[in-house]
Design a protein that fits this description.
This is Phosphoenolpyruvate carboxylase. This protein is mainly α. It is globular. The structure holds 2-phosphoglycolic acid.
């Protein structure tokens, strides 16, 4: 069933080692019989994939498995994939050339871009990964933690250690960890709540982001020879994104913010405590500046034993103030409270300034009489200062998000109750804008304390009030962006400002020459093909409103969010990618004319059908001028564990993102305008054909909905307890109303991966000038990235297996009709891709990815087979609960093996 039957796959030695241990665990805990059967299925599947003679004729014995054996078998294969992922991550399969800041700086230097230009860019830059709670992570955190522990143990093994630091035998310790994985329940029994999502994200914050970010800055400062501004930050949606998630309400948001404060202040307390133990500098042996002495004297620490140790005393005072801040912001004292009573900090800047006094003292205070010091700002104190600058008391800036339809209804109700407009919803866009501008011109509130608002309005108002409270409590960095899903018009943006005005966050201009003030920026999210096309007009109209232009100018930048998955579901892979490119490109001159910096926020998922693929490649391939140092990108679900699960992984991924931003923003544009225009014209034509083909398949015949629902495990996916939000916004079964995640997830499980390629083959084949396509594939980064992501998807899909899923469709003729069309499209797509990229088989030019995928395929196929059989039994009405459990396990296992779900 493989695309390339005769090629040999290079085995990664770690996979061999871990696979052998897993086999031993299965034998010890599952018994010889299970081990024997699993091993037989594994080896026959591998043989089949290697194209060994007669392998197809051998029955691997899948159908003979009992239900209990099936569950155990699926877990075994899932664990193998989990361990294979780990082994691959260790080998840095994803490492890309030029994907580090030092390489980017060198490359830029060779192109005549010096360090000053880089520093100037960074002065106005913002690079922000935005963690979302998007439900695509199928693994429980306990499984991820065991995996991380194995990675740590393997690192010790690399260093030649035979024992852990505690003295356990290393091989045994690894084996024990695998045995724990084997005995840990992979599926969640209970649904996830928003607080669980918050808690999971906090563990990444504490273990990974808090230590890694300052370390990276230190590293880059050495490369660039200068202190860097705070351009790389972490943002989050968890507890703030309520679009389609009724459980994100004011309380959930408050809880998320308070947990965040607890994590970050707890982290500072532990750092300050450790430094207190370390900085035993005595006035008898070192010169200590007056400022440090003054801080020590004001600290309230009057222990005689520390009388000559001003740094320690000052740190006691800082600890005491942090402890008081913890009480104020989190509502309780920290785990190790300070014995000293002190005033809380009003803001993180005060903490930073006190730490800076100490750093300054350390820098200047060499041995008595001798002015030299080994304490640079990059030491522990320097890193803590940077941490405070980046994470404040809020940890990660939290975005808010809601659907524009909600804002419309809420604003309509407020306007009606206040007697301003009777039927706002019936007004056209021009009139709506007029009404909203009228409201924004003065600070008069619309909300009346005596009105009896609908439940929806009351709920929306309360979360916006919670945002205003958060600003009071944690400072202006706590919430800076308000994303508007389904943003399609200027009124969608103004409505949010009207709501923010109600809680005092938006302040009307004080006079004709002044700008409004609003620390929260309303950000439209353009996410259908039509909305992306309209985006430039909407932004032009937005900037034509003087007070909005003034607001954006005062802030210096305006963000626009562009949605990858929904545009893909709407218009197919190629048209979505092309529309995103065109919209970004067309927005650039509009911002330049307005004199406002553009900040694009890329809403992309892990899977290619949701805009996934290499972030490094994707950022580098953005149209020139669209990045210019400012970018935000969503990081979702399984991508968070894969990219940021370990400090080393997080470092290299943040390096890659930063270096791609530097390269895209600063590399001289060598492209020839005429050639670019020619490529764009070709792309426009190709995209139109792809769009028509995709829309015709997915939307022209209602039967396709039934086909999709019956062929894929969509219903079973919706039951997976992997996120706090429902799989659908509404009850409708229309594809338009389905969220993009389950759409992509379902096609991936059935190995069709339709959202990652459908329509492309037909469109490319219909384009006459194949030489031009080849040229585009060779020299246009946008087209290259588009094809290379698609190639990965094609390599993971398998039409032979998909055909078996198609047989699940009750109406056989209808099922065959749609499936034949999909299969023909797949063949055509693969053939033309190989032709224009000049390759004998898929991934011929990406050997490590080829290896990685080929290694996994034999493990996925039996899982698909079992999934299909279990789905048949479930649909036939069998009610043994192990069937449902088996399907869920198989979903989990296949997603793990494919390395992305939805
Ligand atoms: P959304 O995200 O449904 O939250 O807009 C879609 C996605 O990330 O794929």
């Amino acid at each position: 069933m493989t695309n390339t039957p005769s090629l040999t796959v290079r085995q990664n030695p770690d996979i061999k080692y871990l696979g052998k241990l897993l086999g031993d665990v299965i034998r010890s805990y599952g018994g010889d019989e299970l081990y024997r059967r699993t091993e037989y299925i594994r080896s026959t599947s591998v043989d089949r994939h290697r194209g060994l003679a007669d392998a197809d004729a051998i029955d691997p014995g899948l159908d003979a498995l009992s239900l209990d054996e099936t569950l155990a078998f699926v877990r075994g294969f899932m664990l193998f994939s989990l361990l294979a992922n780990l082994a691959e991550d260790r080998q840095g399969v994803a490492a890309e050339e030029g994907a580090s800041v030092v390489e980017a700086v060198q490359l830029l230097a060779s192109e005549g871009v010096d360090k000053d230009a880089i520093l100037a860019l960074l002065d106005n830059a913002l690079i922000a990964p935005v963690l979302t709670a998007h439900p695509t992570e199928v693994r429980r955190k306990s499984m991820i933690d065991h995996k991380a522990r194995i990675a740590e143990l393997l690192l010790m093994k690399d260093d030649g250690d035979a024992e852990t630091t505690e003295g356990d035998d290393l091989d045994e310790a690894i084996m024990r960890q695998i045995a724990l994985l084997w005995q840990t329940r992979p599926l969640r029994r209970e649904r996830l709540f928003v607080t669980d999502e918050v808690q999971i994200s906090q563990s990444y914050m504490k273990d990974v982001f808090l230590p890694v970010l300052p370390k990276l800055y230190g590293k880059w400062e050495k490369v660039l020879g200068h202190r860097l501004p705070n351009f790389l930050k972490l943002n989050s949606w968890i507890g703030g994104d309520r679009d389609g998630n009724p459980f994100v309400d004011a309380d959930a948001m408050r809880e998320a913010l308070s947990r965040a404060a607890e994590t970050v202040i707890g982290y500072y307390l532990s750092r300050v405590h450790a430094m207190g133990a370390e900085l035993s500098i005595s006035t008898e042996l070192a010169e200590v500046p007056d400022e440090v002495e003054a801080l020590a004297d004001a600290s309230g620490d009057d222990a005689l034993s520390r009388k000559d140790e001003p740094y320690r005393r000052a740190l006691s005072g800082i600890y005491a103030r942090l402890s008081a801040t913890h009480l104020k912001l989190c509502g309780h004292v920290p785990g190790r409270p300070s014995p000293i009573q002190a005033e809380p900090y009003d803001n993180p800047q005060q903490l930073r300034d006190e730490l800076a006094v100490l750093a300054h003292g350390l820098r200047g205070g060499g041995a008595k009489g001798e002015k030299q010091s080994v304490f640079a700002t990059s030491g522990a104190l320097g890193r803590l200062i940077r941490t405070v600058e980046l994470f404040g008391f809020h940890l990660a800036t939290l975005d808010m998000r809601q659907n524009s339809r909600f804002h419309e209804r809420v604003v309509a109700e407020l306007l009606k109750e206040a007697g301003v407009a009777d039927d706002y919803l019936a007004q056209d866009e021009a009139r709506r804008v007029e009404i909203l501008r009228g409201e924004l011109a003065n600070n008069r509130p619309l909300v009346s304390p005596w009105a009896d608002y609908s439940e929806e309005t009351a709920k929306e108002l309360s979360i916006i009030r919670a945002a205003a409270e958060a600003h009071q409590k944690y400072g202006p960095e706590v919430i800076t962006n308000y994303n508007i899903s389904n943003g399609e018009s200027v009124s969608d943006i103004l409505e949010v400002y009207v709501l923010l005005m109600e809680v005092g966050l938006y302040r009307a201009p004080e006079n004709e020459n002044a700008a409004p003030i609003c620390p929260v920026m309303a950000v439209p999210l353009f996410e259908t093909v039509a909305d992306l096309e309209n985006a430039p007009d909407v932004i032009t109209e937005f900037f034509a409103i003087p007070e909005m232009l003034a607001l954006a100018k005062t802030r210096g930048h305006q963000e626009v969010m562009i949605g990858y998955s929904d545009s893909n579901k709407d218009g197919g892979y190629l048209t979505s990618t092309w529309s995103l490119f065109k919209a970004s490109d067309a927005l650039t001159p509009i911002f330049a004319k307005a004199g406002v910096k553009m900040q694009l926020f890329h809403g992309r998922g892990g899977a290619v059908g949701r805009g996934g693929g290499s972030a490094f490649g994707a950022i580098k391939a953005q149209p020139k001028g669209t990045v210019a140092g400012r970018i935000r990108i969503t990081e979702q679900g399984e991508v968070i564990a894969a990219k940021y699960g370990t400090q080393a992984g997080a470092e290299s991924n943040l390096e890659a993102m930063t270096s791609a931003v530097l390269l895209n923003s600063l590399e001289p544009d060598k492209s020839d305008q005429a050639v670019q225009a020619d490529f764009a014209a070709a792309m426009e034509k190709i995209s139109q054909v792809a769009f028509t083909e995709y829309r015709d398949l997915v939307y022209s015949d209602d039967a396709f909905r039934t086909f999709f629902r019956q062929m894929t495990p969509l219903t079973e996916i919706a039951k997976l307890k992997i996120g706090s939000r429902p799989a659908s916004r509404t009850q409708s079964d229309k594809i338009e109303d389905l969220r993009a995640i389950p759409w992509v997830f379902s096609w991936a499980q059935a190995r069709v991966m339709l959202p990652g390629w459908y329509g492309v083959g037909q469109a490319l084949a219909a384009f006459d000038d194949k030489a031009k396509l080849k040229e585009m594939a060779q020299s246009w980064p946008f087209f290259q990235a588009t094809l290379s992501n698609m190639e990965m998807v094609l390599a993971k899909s398998d039409m032979g297996i998909a055909a078996r899923y198609a047989e699940l469709v009750e109406d056989r003729d209808m099922g065959q009709k749609f499936f034949n069309r999909i299969r023909a499209g797949w063949d055509q797509t693969r053939d033309i891709l190989l032709e224009i990229t000049d390759q004998p088989h898929l991934l011929a030019k990406s050997p490590s990815l080829f290896n990685s995928i080929e290694l996994r395929l034999p493990y996925i196929e039996p899982l698909n087979h079992l999934q299909i059989e279990l789905m048949k039994r479930l649909r036939a009405g069998e009610d043994d609960p192990r069937i449902g459990e088996g399907i869920q396990l198989s979903l989990n296992a296949i997603a793990t093996a494919l390395r992305n779900s939805g």
